[in-house]
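Need the bound structure for 7TS, inputs here:
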Amino acid sequence: MATTIDPATAPSLDLERIRADFPILDREVGGNPLTYLDSAATSQKPIQVMDAVDRYYRRSNANVHRGVHQLGNEATDRFEASRVRVAGFIDADPQGLVFVRNTTEALNLVAGSYARELLQKGDRIVLTLMEHHSNLVPWQLAAERAGLQLAFIGLTEDGRLELSNLDELLAPPTRLLSLTHQSNVLGTVNDIAAITAEAHRRDVLVCLDGAQSVPHMRVSTRELGVDFLAFSGHKMCGPMGSGALWARPELLERMPPFLGGGSMIAKVELERSTWNTVPHKFEAGTPDVASAVGLAAACDYLDEVGIERIHAHEQGLVRHMIDVLDESGATVYGPRDLAIHGGAVSFNVADVHPHDTGTILDRLGIAVRAGHHCCQPLMRELDVPATARASVYLYNTHEEIDRLGEGIAEVRRVFRV
Ligand code: 7TS
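Answer from helper R.:
Posting the output first, comments after.
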C-alpha cells in the first residue's frame, strides 16, 4: 500500500534547504513568484543532478563499451555504476535494467518485443481505464500486428480500479496485465502487490507503469513481484531523456531485440547476427551516458532526503490541497482516501474550461496542467473533456497550496462563477 508513514507524525522536510537545491524555484513568472505545481509532467532538477551531468561532460566524456583508452573506460564505469545505482533504487537486479529515454520507450519495448513477438494470436492483454496513452497505444499496435485481444479493468465511482471481475479478466487467454501504479489524473495508487499475486496465480505477467510512483514512494520490484517496471528519470529529479525499463533478466533473455545496431550484438555476419548479453541486447547504439549518470545522482539525492519522508510530505500537501479545492467550490476527481492518493489532484472550477483556469493561474505564477493529460479514454469515463491538474513534489509548500486557492478565487471572479 502507499502509506507507510503518517504525515501528521512524520519528521518534516527542511523545505528551505531543499528549495535552495532547485535554482529554478527562485524564478518569477509574470512578476509573481513561481508556484510550480506540475511535477507529474516533469520534476525540477536539483544542482546535485546538474553538477553530476556537468562533471561527467567536463571530466569523463567518451563513448562507452568500446574504448581502450582511459576516458572510454571511465565513461563505461560511470555508465555501469549508474545502472547498479538506479536498479538499487527500485530494489531490482541490475542485469534486468535497460536504460531508455522515458516510460513511453520502456513500454514500447515490452509491447514491441515481448507482446508482439512472443505472444500468440488470440492471446489477451489486460489494461485499465486509467492508463496514460503510453500504456495504451503500444499495446494497440502490438495487438494489431500479432492478432492479440485487449480487455480493460473498469473504474469505481471514486476513481479506483473495479476489481470485482479481476479473476474473470485474468483467466485464459490472458497472458499479460499492464497497468499504472499511480494515476497521473486521479492520483489513485493501485494495490500492485495484491493484483500481481492474483495475476501470477493465473500465470499472467505484470507490467507496471511506475512513471508516477517511482519518483514519490518506495517501489521495490521484489516486494511488488512485478515482471516489468517502466519509469521516467525526468519525473524524479533526473535529466530530461532519462528513464529505464526493468524486466526479469530471464524474460529479457527470451525477448528478441527491439532495435538493432551497434553494442547490442555479439557476432555480425552479412545475413545474420547474434546478440549481446542482457541488458545490453536492448541498448542499441551510443547511450545517453550523461543522463544515466544524472539519473543515478537523482537516486542519491532522493535517498538522501528520504523517499518515505517525501511521500509523507506530499500526503500532507495533498490533504491540504483537497481541503483548499473543496473550500473553493472546485469539483475534485479521484479518491478521497489519502491512503490511496498520490501527489496529483485533478479538478474543474464550475464550467470554466480548464485551459482558461490554467491561463488565469499562470498569470499569478502558478503552473498547473490543463487538458486530457494523455488519458482521453479516462476523460470519457469521467464524462469531462478535460481537467486542470495540480501535482506536488518534495519542494512544494503549504503556502503554495494556499496560493492555488487564491488563484481559484481569482478564476471565479474573472468568470463570475
Ligand atoms: N505513464 C504515466 C502514468 C504518466 O503519467 C506519464 C507521463 C507517462 C506514462 C509517460 O511518461 P514519459 O516520460 O514517457 O512522457 N505523464 C505526463 C503527465 O501527466 N503530464 O505530462 C506527462
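Comments: The radius of gyration is 22 Å. The chain is about 40% helix and 15% strand.
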